[in-house]
Amino acid sequence: MNAPATRAGALILVLFAVLGAAAPLLAPYSPDQQDLPRRLDPPSLRHPLGCDDLGRDVLSRLLHGARVSLGAGLVVTLIAGTAGILIGALAGYSGGRADTLLVGLMDLLLGFPGVLLAIAIVAVVGPRLRNLVVALCLIGWVGYARLARSLAIRLREADFVQAADAAGASLPRLIARHVLPGLLGPALVQAALGLGGVIVAEAGLSFLGLGVPPPTASWGSMLRSGSQNLLDAPHLTVFPALAIFGAILGANLLADGLGRRLDPRREAVGTAF
Amino acid sequence: MIGFGLRRAVLAVPLLFGVATLVFLLIHLIPGDPVAVMLGTGATSADIEDLRHRLGLDRPLAGQYAAFLAGILRGDLGLSLHYRDSVTDLILERCPATMLLATASMAVAILLAVPAGITAALRPGGVLDHATTTLSAMALSFPSFGLGPVLLLVFAIRLDWLPVSGLDEPAAILLPAFTLGFPVAALLARLVRASLVEEQGLPYIRAARARGLGAVAAGLGHALPNALPPVITVAALQLGSLLTGAILTETIFAWPGLGRLLVQAISHRDYPLVQGCVLFICSLYIAVNLAADLLHRGLDPRAAA
Fold first, then answer.
1. Domain for residue B151, yes or no?
2. Nearest residue to A88 via CA among A194, A189, A181, A183
3. What are the tens digits of pLDDT across the range A77-97?
4. Are residues B61 and B209 in the same domain?
5. Which residues on chain B are in Cβ contact (under 8 Å) with A210?
6. How far is A127 from chain B (nearest CA, A)?
7. Which residue, A132, A149, A273, B36, shows the most beta carbons closer than 10 Å to its own?
8. Which residue, among B168, B188, B176, has the nearest Cα to B245 in the 3D structure?
9. CATH label of the domain that carries residue A117
10. Which residues of B touch A228 (CB under 8 A)?
11. Is residue A268 part of a domain?
12. What is the pLDDT of residues B115-134, one digit of tens each?
């Protein structure tokens, strides 16, 4: 992947974000407006992407679904990223008991298949977007913490950090002014990759019926209803699948490009669900 | 090697213990009365108390925890509320189908990845290299629940070449195995390419080429055997992710494995079965990762240093 691919990745994500944000203005119909005589209608001039099993406009639902999918992705990435980086940086820099405890917790959570943990949590606390976001944050922060911890341990030995420490800088100042800026680049790569992972996880859980409850539109729940009408209405499967593919491709291209800028030898990144 | 294996196995024990604790706590995360939630709205208070007693939820938390751990050690994961059968038996009955799917998916991934990676690496920067890199980036972006229904639509419904679902015909495994294995193939193809390109730049390959050996012969005969160990390690690690990926793939293709059992258990609010499935899949995941670690150590003597 090269710079144009990185820009393409960023552009795809921005485009989806703008479409999602402007969904109430752009969507030709309300996402929940039912038109039962038109149920499972194929794409037409009136409904460019067709209608679903309740006669709802697929294009409008896809646009509103972008709000849920990208919104959940951004919120989880922001919360899990911020928490993970702060915890990892503090533990890695300080060392001692806090670090030992963090390593034990990280080993436990990384030894556990994250998606399965999210499925298990949402299965017991109930399928709601809030629960899904909490479950994804609970498993998502670990990757950032591991990255931040290893970089903070390296930065702790750097001359400029040692000098600031010797000059009497407080721990919060050392972390905020000297350690965190050094983490920013790798954390951004991780965030781009994590965003794709969260979008996949949200859509995957919604596909299993463990995400956003009906009638709220989300790409995963649309795909779920599409797979139940595969024979009669293939457009219900194809369009949500393409939307999910586009958003994840955007995140992966961005992560790949950012990673290569930081480390030109970098090869394989990606997210498989 | 045996000592290392034993040490790693011992390190997996606290991990398994932690997983068992998290799985035990799951049932206590249910908002409200878990027993009332399991039984649904039609249950009488006598039904609720009866089930509470049968599940041991009327005992103090420490007692429940001790009984849960003791049950695991005996291989007793409790009774399924929906199937009215032993959770352990249900899991063992479905496990072979998941293992078969994961193995077939890995076979698909390796069969696609190795030739693609080699083709790309033999002429880095060439048309085939760009094509492989682009295709693999796209494959990594297509989740199984997007790819699976599209494959079903094309190959089972439109073209009618392959069965739609189930385990009745041998050909029925092709679509789920491809769906699950395709993203792994993309990851492995990138690794084969990267590992082979790196290996081809080393002095022993340059010396072989200087002696007149062709690019293909040097690449396949000399570089490839040395480029494959890291790929095999990652493939072994990916086997663990295939076990969790199978949850969605089995649901799409009605494949009678552990993943589908878990999803059915969730929809039936059969929490003892949910706990059993999660615990079993996690233990398999940990065991597979442990085996991958040992394989890595065996294949790459530098890892022992």
1. yes
2. A183
3. 999 999 999 999 988 888 888
4. no
5. 266
6. 11
7. A132
8. B176
9. 1.10.3720.10
10. none
11. no
12. 999 888 888 888 888 888 88
Nearest to A204 among B22, B141, B248 (CB): B248
Are residues B184 and B283 both part of a single domain? Answer: yes
Name the residue of chain B whose CA is nearest to A125's CA. Answer: B30
Regarding whether B188 and B115 lie in a shared domain, the answer is yes
Cα distances (angstroms) measured from residue A39 to each of A35, A51, A80, A151, B2: 7, 6, 40, 54, 63
Distance from CA of A210 to the nearest CA of B (A): 9
Q: What is the ipTM of this complex?
A: 0.82
Where do we find the tokens 């997210």? A271
Identify whether residues B212 and B179 lie together within a single domain: yes
The C-alpha atoms of residue A117 and residue A121 are separated, in whole angstroms, by 6
Q: Do B145 and A207 touch (CB under 8 A)?
A: yes
Q: Is A142 on the interface with B (CB under 8 A)?
A: no
Distance in angstroms (rounded) separating the CA atoms of residues B189 and A97: 42
Are residues A116 and B15, on separate chains, in Cβ contact within 8 Å? no
Residue pairs spanning A and B at CB distance below 8 A: 154
Residue A40 covered by a domain: no
Sequence-ordered list of residues with C-beta below 8 angstroms from that of A202, at least 6 positions apart, any chain: A68, A69, A72, A73, A76, A132, A136, A211, A218, A220
Pairwise CA distance, residues B212 & B127, whole Å: 25
A123 inside 8 A of chain B by CB: yes
Q: Are residues B255 and B190 in the same domain?
A: yes
- What is the predicted pLDDT for the residue at B78? 87
Q: What is the pTM of this model?
A: 0.84
- CA-CA distance, A211 to B245, in Å (whole number)? 17
Closest Cβ opposite residue A249 in set B138, B281, B285: B138
Residue B52 is part of which domain span?
2-74
How confident is the model over A141-160, as pLDDT tens digits?
998 998 989 888 888 888 88
- B29 to A241: CB separation less than 8 angstroms, yes or no: no
Question: Of all helices (H) and strands (E), which one includes residue B296?
Answer: helix B271-299
Which pLDDT belongs to residue A262?
A: 75
Q: What is the CATH number of the domain that holds B123?
A: 1.10.3720.10
Residue A42 lies in a domain: no
Chain A, 164 to 203: residues with Cβ < 8 Å from chain B are 196, 200, 203
- 3-state SS class at A64: helix
pLDDT tier, A268 (very low <50, low <70, confident <90, very high otherwise): very low
C-alpha dihedral (A212, B243, A105, B13), degrees to nearest 10: 140
Helices B2-26, A96-111: axis angle to 10 degrees equals: 80
Residue of A nearest to B24 (CA): A120
Domain that includes residue A8, residue range = 2-18+50-262
In single-letter form, the type of residue at position A82 comes to T
